[in-house]
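A quick aside before the break. I want you to see a complete sequence-to-structure record at least once, exactly as it would be stored in a machine-readable document. Don't worry about memorizing anything.
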Amino acid sequence: MVTAGPTFEPLDAVRRLTNFSTGRLGSELANFLAARGHEVALFIGQLATYRGQRQAREVETFTTTADLRLRLRALAGQPVEAVFHAAAVSDFTFGKIFRRSAQGELSETKSGKISTREGTLLAELVPTPKIIAELRPWFPAARIVAWKYEVEGDRPGVVCLAEKQIAECHTDACVANGPAYGPGFGLVRAGGECSHLSDSDALFEALEKLITNIR
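That is the input. The structure line, written in tokens, reads:
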């Protein structure tokens, strides 16, 4: 199973909060694994902009974080060999929306399409459930790999965060990347081992080895 692309969270019926994610890396990982003979299910965000080929045996499109969570939970207990959770899951969803009057008073507002005539708005951002923390109970026998994308800090700091995620979520590995990590990817394993991989091709090769080592 591979997840890819962004989730989104609705402000109202026409506006959304989402992440900058094309879905390309996860889609190409799914293609790579399929070409190597694996039976792949790809879960791709509806707002993913990457339009390359999708060669997975099964392709499902998800919308919100809650939608992706329900789709994965529905497969709990299935004989899944590996889960590569590369989706850019929104960390926040909207809570209450408030309109601020000229006098500074706040009042909650609700509408299918909030009008700009409402003036200045204040929106609560509520943390979404951490899907990565639920994958191990759902797929106890699977190899589980997550991603840690960071924009601030340095490479050792990102690797440290990846190690923390592995320990807290009981995953097998974490892919560290983003501006804080720098060019390439770091494949961090339980126990603190980190392998630097210069490009996506090298990353995909290393990730497949995590599967073949099961056999």
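Two observations worth writing down. The chain has five helices and 13 strands. The CA atoms of residues 6 and 88 lie 5 Å apart. We'll return to this after the break.
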